Each structure stands twice: as structure tokens, then as C-alpha cells.
């Protein structure tokens, strides 16, 4: 998948997440887990580490919302994961950091917001919001809106691309 920068640049920044299979099992580790069965959610806190295939999400706290299809515990389906606190998502050499992230399993969309940074072998970028559509293989990386009140931010997406080195052999 190509992550496309929002705005007029329309440049490619990263590849890889489009090949992710969101139907694979989800494994987790955390310092504490609280199952809130009536609300159909699981609260994971403290050094949360969630993996699905080769996609990994780390955070201080996550809420996993699920549906119990058919009424028995064999048909539990994750609907979404909401992560907060030093969120890091990685797959291969693609790394994304932000304040919060949501992985919507139904829509197959990952959204990262708040001081978002992206880094990989092809370049790096900074912005306020990154939306990755796993089905369409398209992502939007946008800067801070003018209503944030943070005058130190330009409101723009910034970054750099890695340039292939030329061969010096004649």
C-alpha cells in the first residue's frame, strides 16, 4: 500500500500496510486486563502490546470493543481498538507514532492523531492526522487545523524523502 501525503504534494511516502490481513488472530500483552463483558469491551492498561500477523501496536492503554455473534464465546469478533498514550504502530520498517490511534476492523481503517510521526527507509513525515485505508490502499496525512491554538505548529505536513544514491561506476 502507498501512504499518500495529504495536500497538493500527493507524494508516496511508505508501502506495506495494504497487505495486512485484518482477519488474522489478535494477540495481546499488558500489565492489567479488565473484561467488561456487559459493555462488550476489554480494557488493557500498562505497557500494552498488541500484534496481529506482522502489525504491532503499543500504547499505555487500549480499549478493545467486540461483538459476541451467536451468544457464545466462540464467536467473539473485534470491532475496534482504541489506543492512547505514546502510541506506536509498526509493520516491517514502517513506524508511526502518535497520541491516539483507532483500528476499525469493520471499516479496515487505522487512524492516528496527535503529533503524528512516520518513519521508514523511504522517508519521514510529521503531521496531525494519518488515516490508512487498508482496503483502498490509500492514506491521507494532514497537518494541524488552524483551530488547534498551537502557534508553534505550521498546520502543514512536513517530511523528507530518501533519495537513491547514484552509482559512481562509469
How many helices in DSSP terms? 0
Please give the CATH class.
Answer: Mainly Beta
Low-confidence stretches: 1-16
Distance between the termini: 35 Å
What is the C-alpha radius of gyration, as a whole number of Å? 18 Å
What is the correct CATH architecture?
Sandwich
Overall pLDDT:
80
CATH topology: lipopolysaccharide transport protein A fold
Name its key features.
170 residues, mainly beta, lipopolysaccharide transport protein A fold, twelve-stranded mixed β-sheet, 0% helix, disordered N terminus, glycolipid transfer activity, signal, LPS_export_LptA, Lipopolysaccharide export system protein LptA, OstA-like_N
Amino acid at each position: 500500500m502507498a501512504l499518500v501525503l495529504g495536500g497538493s504534494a500527493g507524494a508516496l511516502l511508505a508501502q506495506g500496510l495494504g497487505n495486512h490481513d485484518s482477519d488474522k488472530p489478535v494477540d495481546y500483552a499488558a500489565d492489567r486486563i479488565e473484561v467488561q463483558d456487559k459493555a462488550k469491551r476489554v480494557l488493557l492498561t500498562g505497557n500494552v502490546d498488541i500484534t496481529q500477523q506482522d502489525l504491532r501496536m503499543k500504547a499505555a492503554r487500549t480499549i478493545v470493543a467486540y461483538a459476541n455473534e451467536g451468544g457464545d464465546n466462540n464467536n467473539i469478533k473485534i470491532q475496534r481498538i482504541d489506543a492512547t498514550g505514546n502510541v506506536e504502530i509498526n509493520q516491517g520498517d514502517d513506524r508511526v507514532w502518535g497520541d491516539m490511534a483507532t483500528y476499525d476492523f469493520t471499516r479496515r481503517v487505522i487512524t492516528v492523531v496527535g503529533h503524528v510521526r512516520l518513519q521508514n527507509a523511504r522517508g519521514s513525515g510529521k503531521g496531525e492526522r494519518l488515516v490508512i485505508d487498508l482496503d483502498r490502499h490509500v492514506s491521507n496525512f494532514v497537518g494541524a487545523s488552524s483551530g488547534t491554538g498551537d502557534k508553534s505548529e505550521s498546520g502543514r505536513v512536513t517530511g523528507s524523502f530518501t533519495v537513491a544514491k547514484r552509482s559512481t561506476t562509469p
